[in-house]
Amino acid sequence: ELAYLNGHYLPKNEAQISPMDRGFLFGDGIYEVIPCHNRKPIALQRHIDRLQRNLSAIGIKAGHDDSHWAGIIRTLAQESPTEHCGVYLHISRGTAAKRHHTYSDGLSPTQFAYSFQIPAPPSSANRPSMGLKLKSQEDLRWLHCDVKVTALLGNVLHYQYAVDEGFDEALLYRPSGKITEASASNVFCVKNGVIFTPALDNTLLPGITRGLVIDVLRDHSKITVLEQDLGLQDFLDADEVWLSSSTRELAPVTQIDERVIGNGEIGPMWARVIDLFQRHKYEYA
Ligand code: PLP
Protein backbone atom coordinates (compact mmCIF):
# COMPACT_ATOMS: atom_id res chain seq x y z
CA GLU A 1 0.00 0.00 0.00
CA LEU A 2 1.45 3.29 -1.12
CA ALA A 3 1.79 6.29 1.16
CA TYR A 4 3.25 9.79 0.86
CA LEU A 5 5.48 11.25 3.57
CA ASN A 6 7.26 14.61 3.36
CA GLY A 7 7.98 14.61 -0.36
CA HIS A 8 8.41 10.85 -0.94
CA TYR A 9 6.18 7.97 -1.94
CA LEU A 10 6.86 4.76 -0.03
CA PRO A 11 5.06 1.64 1.25
CA LYS A 12 2.67 2.67 4.04
CA ASN A 13 4.21 0.29 6.58
CA GLU A 14 7.62 1.91 6.04
CA ALA A 15 6.41 5.45 6.78
CA GLN A 16 7.81 6.65 10.11
CA ILE A 17 7.64 9.91 12.06
CA SER A 18 9.15 11.05 15.34
CA PRO A 19 7.18 10.61 18.59
CA MET A 20 8.09 14.29 19.16
CA ASP A 21 5.82 15.23 16.26
CA ARG A 22 3.25 17.72 17.55
CA GLY A 23 0.57 15.80 15.71
CA PHE A 24 1.32 12.84 18.03
CA LEU A 25 1.90 14.87 21.22
CA PHE A 26 -0.90 17.42 20.92
CA GLY A 27 -3.12 16.43 17.99
CA ASP A 28 -1.72 19.66 16.53
CA GLY A 29 -2.65 19.32 12.88
CA ILE A 30 -5.40 19.25 10.29
CA TYR A 31 -6.58 16.63 7.83
CA GLU A 32 -8.72 15.98 4.79
CA VAL A 33 -10.42 12.92 3.34
CA ILE A 34 -11.00 13.06 -0.40
CA PRO A 35 -13.30 10.43 -1.93
CA CYS A 36 -12.21 9.00 -5.29
CA HIS A 37 -14.48 6.90 -7.48
CA ASN A 38 -13.14 5.05 -10.50
CA ARG A 39 -9.82 6.59 -9.37
CA LYS A 40 -11.15 10.14 -9.89
CA PRO A 41 -11.29 12.58 -6.93
CA ILE A 42 -14.74 14.09 -6.25
CA ALA A 43 -14.94 17.86 -5.72
CA LEU A 44 -11.15 18.02 -5.49
CA GLN A 45 -10.89 21.82 -5.46
CA ARG A 46 -13.43 22.11 -2.63
CA HIS A 47 -11.36 19.71 -0.53
CA ILE A 48 -8.14 21.61 -1.28
CA ASP A 49 -9.82 24.94 -0.50
CA ARG A 50 -10.95 23.57 2.87
CA LEU A 51 -7.45 22.17 3.53
CA GLN A 52 -5.85 25.57 2.85
CA ARG A 53 -8.48 27.31 5.03
CA ASN A 54 -7.83 24.87 7.88
CA LEU A 55 -4.05 25.34 7.66
CA SER A 56 -4.54 29.11 7.94
CA ALA A 57 -7.08 28.70 10.73
CA ILE A 58 -4.49 27.08 13.01
CA GLY A 59 -1.50 29.01 11.66
CA ILE A 60 0.42 26.22 9.91
CA LYS A 61 2.47 27.59 7.03
CA ALA A 62 3.04 24.56 4.83
CA GLY A 63 4.14 26.75 1.91
CA HIS A 64 2.55 24.66 -0.85
CA ASP A 65 0.11 25.71 -3.54
CA ASP A 66 -3.00 23.80 -4.55
CA SER A 67 -1.22 21.84 -7.29
CA HIS A 68 1.11 20.22 -4.72
CA TRP A 69 -1.85 18.79 -2.77
CA ALA A 70 -3.77 17.89 -5.94
CA GLY A 71 -0.74 15.96 -7.23
CA ILE A 72 -0.52 13.82 -4.08
CA ILE A 73 -4.25 13.10 -4.08
CA ARG A 74 -4.33 12.20 -7.79
CA THR A 75 -1.24 9.98 -7.52
CA LEU A 76 -2.57 8.02 -4.55
CA ALA A 77 -5.98 7.59 -6.25
CA GLN A 78 -4.30 6.37 -9.46
CA GLU A 79 -2.10 3.91 -7.58
CA SER A 80 -4.89 2.68 -5.31
CA PRO A 81 -5.48 -1.09 -5.52
CA THR A 82 -9.24 -0.43 -5.29
CA GLU A 83 -11.20 1.73 -7.73
CA HIS A 84 -13.20 3.33 -4.91
CA CYS A 85 -10.88 4.86 -2.33
CA GLY A 86 -10.53 7.70 0.10
CA VAL A 87 -7.29 9.66 0.29
CA TYR A 88 -6.41 10.63 3.85
CA LEU A 89 -4.13 13.69 3.95
CA HIS A 90 -2.71 14.87 7.27
CA ILE A 91 -0.52 17.88 7.99
CA SER A 92 0.82 18.41 11.49
CA ARG A 93 2.75 21.42 12.74
CA GLY A 94 5.95 19.33 12.76
CA THR A 95 8.53 18.02 15.22
CA ALA A 96 10.07 20.20 17.93
CA ALA A 97 13.03 19.32 20.16
CA LYS A 98 11.05 19.97 23.36
CA ARG A 99 7.46 19.25 24.27
CA HIS A 100 5.89 22.61 24.97
CA HIS A 101 2.36 23.78 24.25
CA THR A 102 3.39 26.91 22.40
CA TYR A 103 5.17 26.69 19.08
CA SER A 104 7.63 28.72 17.09
CA ASP A 105 7.47 29.53 13.41
CA GLY A 106 10.56 27.54 12.44
CA LEU A 107 8.98 24.07 12.39
CA SER A 108 8.71 22.08 9.20
CA PRO A 109 5.14 20.66 8.93
CA THR A 110 4.84 16.89 8.61
CA GLN A 111 2.83 15.81 5.54
CA PHE A 112 1.40 12.32 5.40
CA ALA A 113 -1.13 10.73 3.03
CA TYR A 114 -2.36 7.29 2.05
CA SER A 115 -5.41 5.78 0.38
CA PHE A 116 -7.91 3.30 1.78
CA GLN A 117 -10.82 1.38 0.34
CA ILE A 118 -14.34 2.86 0.55
CA PRO A 119 -17.64 1.25 -0.46
CA ALA A 120 -19.01 1.47 -3.99
CA PRO A 121 -21.39 4.45 -4.24
CA PRO A 122 -24.92 3.81 -2.99
CA SER A 123 -27.90 4.37 -5.29
CA SER A 124 -31.57 3.44 -5.41
CA ALA A 125 -30.45 0.22 -7.13
CA ASN A 126 -27.56 -0.37 -4.71
CA ARG A 127 -29.28 0.51 -1.46
CA PRO A 128 -28.09 -0.46 2.02
CA SER A 129 -29.97 -3.43 3.43
CA MET A 130 -30.84 -1.45 6.57
CA GLY A 131 -30.99 2.12 7.80
CA LEU A 132 -28.64 3.32 10.52
CA LYS A 133 -29.51 3.80 14.19
CA LEU A 134 -28.36 7.01 15.91
CA LYS A 135 -27.93 7.69 19.62
CA SER A 136 -28.58 11.29 20.63
CA GLN A 137 -25.91 12.79 22.91
CA GLU A 138 -25.09 16.24 24.21
CA ASP A 139 -22.25 17.55 22.03
CA LEU A 140 -19.26 17.77 24.39
CA ARG A 141 -16.67 18.85 21.81
CA TRP A 142 -14.85 22.20 21.67
CA LEU A 143 -16.19 25.30 19.90
CA HIS A 144 -14.10 25.11 16.70
CA CYS A 145 -15.80 22.12 15.12
CA ASP A 146 -15.79 24.06 11.84
CA VAL A 147 -12.04 23.37 11.56
CA LYS A 148 -11.08 19.83 10.50
CA VAL A 149 -8.39 19.19 13.12
CA THR A 150 -6.73 15.87 13.90
CA ALA A 151 -7.48 16.26 17.63
CA LEU A 152 -10.58 14.07 17.40
CA LEU A 153 -10.89 12.65 20.92
CA GLY A 154 -14.31 14.27 21.40
CA ASN A 155 -15.57 12.74 18.16
CA VAL A 156 -13.92 9.39 18.99
CA LEU A 157 -15.63 9.14 22.39
CA HIS A 158 -19.06 10.21 21.09
CA TYR A 159 -18.85 7.60 18.32
CA GLN A 160 -17.57 4.89 20.71
CA TYR A 161 -20.33 5.52 23.29
CA ALA A 162 -22.95 5.20 20.54
CA VAL A 163 -21.48 1.93 19.24
CA ASP A 164 -21.02 0.54 22.77
CA GLU A 165 -24.76 1.04 23.29
CA GLY A 166 -25.62 -0.84 20.11
CA PHE A 167 -26.09 2.16 17.80
CA ASP A 168 -24.29 3.02 14.55
CA GLU A 169 -23.47 6.71 15.15
CA ALA A 170 -24.10 9.61 17.53
CA LEU A 171 -26.48 12.51 16.84
CA LEU A 172 -25.08 15.53 18.66
CA TYR A 173 -26.93 18.50 20.15
CA ARG A 174 -25.62 21.55 21.99
CA PRO A 175 -26.99 22.62 25.39
CA SER A 176 -29.09 25.17 23.45
CA GLY A 177 -30.86 22.22 21.83
CA LYS A 178 -29.36 22.88 18.41
CA ILE A 179 -28.48 19.70 16.52
CA THR A 180 -24.96 20.07 15.13
CA GLU A 181 -23.91 16.89 13.30
CA ALA A 182 -23.00 13.24 13.89
CA SER A 183 -19.54 12.35 15.20
CA ALA A 184 -18.16 11.74 11.69
CA SER A 185 -20.91 13.02 9.35
CA ASN A 186 -23.30 15.88 8.71
CA VAL A 187 -27.03 15.32 9.13
CA PHE A 188 -30.15 15.99 7.07
CA CYS A 189 -33.84 15.48 7.76
CA VAL A 190 -36.89 15.52 5.48
CA LYS A 191 -40.40 16.67 6.39
CA ASN A 192 -43.33 16.96 4.00
CA GLY A 193 -41.08 16.95 0.95
CA VAL A 194 -38.71 19.67 2.23
CA ILE A 195 -35.07 18.86 3.07
CA PHE A 196 -33.45 20.47 6.12
CA THR A 197 -29.88 20.54 7.42
CA PRO A 198 -28.34 22.47 10.33
CA ALA A 199 -27.05 25.94 9.36
CA LEU A 200 -23.26 26.27 9.34
CA ASP A 201 -21.54 27.92 12.29
CA ASN A 202 -18.53 27.15 14.53
CA THR A 203 -20.22 24.06 16.02
CA LEU A 204 -20.16 21.83 12.92
CA LEU A 205 -17.94 20.93 10.02
CA PRO A 206 -18.82 22.44 6.64
CA GLY A 207 -18.90 19.00 5.02
CA ILE A 208 -18.03 18.85 1.35
CA THR A 209 -20.71 16.20 0.79
CA ARG A 210 -23.28 18.37 2.61
CA GLY A 211 -22.42 21.25 0.25
CA LEU A 212 -22.54 19.02 -2.83
CA VAL A 213 -25.95 17.59 -1.89
CA ILE A 214 -27.30 21.13 -1.44
CA ASP A 215 -25.81 22.32 -4.75
CA VAL A 216 -27.02 19.27 -6.71
CA LEU A 217 -30.54 19.78 -5.36
CA ARG A 218 -30.56 23.52 -6.09
CA ASP A 219 -29.05 23.09 -9.59
CA HIS A 220 -30.88 19.96 -10.70
CA SER A 221 -34.23 19.71 -8.89
CA LYS A 222 -37.13 21.77 -7.62
CA ILE A 223 -36.86 20.23 -4.16
CA THR A 224 -36.52 22.87 -1.41
CA VAL A 225 -33.43 22.60 0.83
CA LEU A 226 -33.26 24.79 3.94
CA GLU A 227 -30.20 25.40 6.12
CA GLN A 228 -31.47 26.39 9.55
CA ASP A 229 -31.25 25.64 13.27
CA LEU A 230 -32.96 22.34 14.09
CA GLY A 231 -33.63 20.51 17.36
CA LEU A 232 -33.77 16.83 18.29
CA GLN A 233 -37.56 16.89 18.01
CA ASP A 234 -37.32 17.95 14.35
CA PHE A 235 -35.26 14.84 13.67
CA LEU A 236 -37.51 12.52 15.74
CA ASP A 237 -40.61 13.81 13.90
CA ALA A 238 -39.00 13.74 10.43
CA ASP A 239 -40.17 11.51 7.57
CA GLU A 240 -36.55 10.68 6.74
CA VAL A 241 -33.10 11.31 8.28
CA TRP A 242 -29.75 10.92 6.50
CA LEU A 243 -26.04 11.20 7.28
CA SER A 244 -23.63 12.69 4.74
CA SER A 245 -19.86 12.23 4.47
CA SER A 246 -17.20 11.75 1.84
CA THR A 247 -16.92 8.02 2.48
CA ARG A 248 -20.65 7.22 2.93
CA GLU A 249 -22.09 9.87 0.59
CA LEU A 250 -25.72 9.78 1.83
CA ALA A 251 -26.65 7.13 4.37
CA PRO A 252 -30.29 6.65 5.43
CA VAL A 253 -31.16 6.55 9.14
CA THR A 254 -34.25 4.68 10.35
CA GLN A 255 -33.95 4.96 14.13
CA ILE A 256 -32.93 7.64 16.66
CA ASP A 257 -32.72 6.45 20.28
CA GLU A 258 -35.79 4.20 20.72
CA ARG A 259 -37.81 6.09 18.10
CA VAL A 260 -38.43 4.70 14.61
CA ILE A 261 -38.10 7.39 11.90
CA GLY A 262 -41.02 7.60 9.44
CA ASN A 263 -42.29 4.09 8.77
CA GLY A 264 -38.90 2.56 9.57
CA GLU A 265 -38.05 1.96 5.91
CA ILE A 266 -35.41 3.67 3.78
CA GLY A 267 -37.40 6.57 2.33
CA PRO A 268 -38.35 7.57 -1.24
CA MET A 269 -36.67 11.00 -0.96
CA TRP A 270 -33.35 9.33 -0.14
CA ALA A 271 -33.66 7.20 -3.28
CA ARG A 272 -34.45 10.25 -5.40
CA VAL A 273 -31.66 12.40 -3.98
CA ILE A 274 -28.95 9.71 -4.05
CA ASP A 275 -29.68 9.08 -7.74
CA LEU A 276 -29.49 12.81 -8.50
CA PHE A 277 -26.25 12.95 -6.52
CA GLN A 278 -24.71 10.06 -8.47
CA ARG A 279 -25.73 11.62 -11.78
CA HIS A 280 -24.27 15.05 -11.01
CA LYS A 281 -21.49 14.73 -8.39
CA TYR A 282 -18.68 14.83 -10.98
CA GLU A 283 -19.83 18.24 -12.25
CA TYR A 284 -18.50 20.16 -9.26
CA ALA A 285 -14.82 21.08 -9.13
N1 PLP B 1 -18.68 16.14 10.33
C1 PLP B 1 -17.64 15.49 10.89
C2 PLP B 1 -17.39 15.64 12.34
C3 PLP B 1 -16.77 14.71 10.08
O1 PLP B 1 -15.72 14.08 10.64
C4 PLP B 1 -17.04 14.61 8.70
C5 PLP B 1 -16.14 13.86 7.81
O2 PLP B 1 -16.06 12.69 7.75
C6 PLP B 1 -18.17 15.25 8.17
C7 PLP B 1 -18.95 16.03 9.02
C8 PLP B 1 -18.51 15.15 6.71
O3 PLP B 1 -17.63 15.94 5.94
P1 PLP B 1 -17.28 15.59 4.43
O4 PLP B 1 -18.58 15.54 3.68
O5 PLP B 1 -16.43 16.72 3.99
O6 PLP B 1 -16.59 14.27 4.43
From TrEMBL:
<keyword id="KW-0032">Aminotransferase</keyword>
<keyword id="KW-0663">Pyridoxal phosphate</keyword>
<dbReference type="InterPro" id="IPR001544">
    <property type="entry name" value="Aminotrans_IV"/>
</dbReference>
<dbReference type="InterPro" id="IPR036038">
    <property type="entry name" value="Aminotransferase-like"/>
</dbReference>
<dbReference type="Pfam" id="PF01063">
    <property type="entry name" value="Aminotran_4"/>
</dbReference>
<dbReference type="InterPro" id="IPR018300">
    <property type="entry name" value="Aminotrans_IV_CS"/>
</dbReference>
<comment type="similarity">
    <text>Belongs to the class-IV pyridoxal-phosphate-dependent aminotransferase family.</text>
</comment>
<keyword id="KW-0289">Folate biosynthesis</keyword>
<dbReference type="GO" id="GO:0008696">
    <property type="term" value="F:4-amino-4-deoxychorismate lyase activity"/>
</dbReference>
<comment type="function">
    <text>Involved in the biosynthesis of p-aminobenzoate (PABA), a precursor of tetrahydrofolate. Converts 4-amino-4-deoxychorismate into 4-aminobenzoate (PABA) and pyruvate.</text>
</comment>
<protein>
    <recommendedName>
        <fullName>Aminodeoxychorismate lyase</fullName>
        <ecNumber>4.1.3.38</ecNumber>
    </recommendedName>
</protein>
<dbReference type="GO" id="GO:0046656">
    <property type="term" value="P:folic acid biosynthetic process"/>
</dbReference>
<dbReference type="GO" id="GO:0008652">
    <property type="term" value="P:amino acid biosynthetic process"/>
</dbReference>
<dbReference type="InterPro" id="IPR050571">
    <property type="entry name" value="Class-IV_PLP-Dep_Aminotrnsfr"/>
</dbReference>
<comment type="pathway">
    <text>Cofactor biosynthesis; tetrahydrofolate biosynthesis; 4-aminobenzoate from chorismate: step 2/2.</text>
</comment>
<dbReference type="InterPro" id="IPR043132">
    <property type="entry name" value="BCAT-like_C"/>
</dbReference>
<dbReference type="GO" id="GO:0005829">
    <property type="term" value="C:cytosol"/>
</dbReference>
<dbReference type="GO" id="GO:0008483">
    <property type="term" value="F:transaminase activity"/>
</dbReference>
<keyword id="KW-0808">Transferase</keyword>
<dbReference type="InterPro" id="IPR043131">
    <property type="entry name" value="BCAT-like_N"/>
</dbReference>
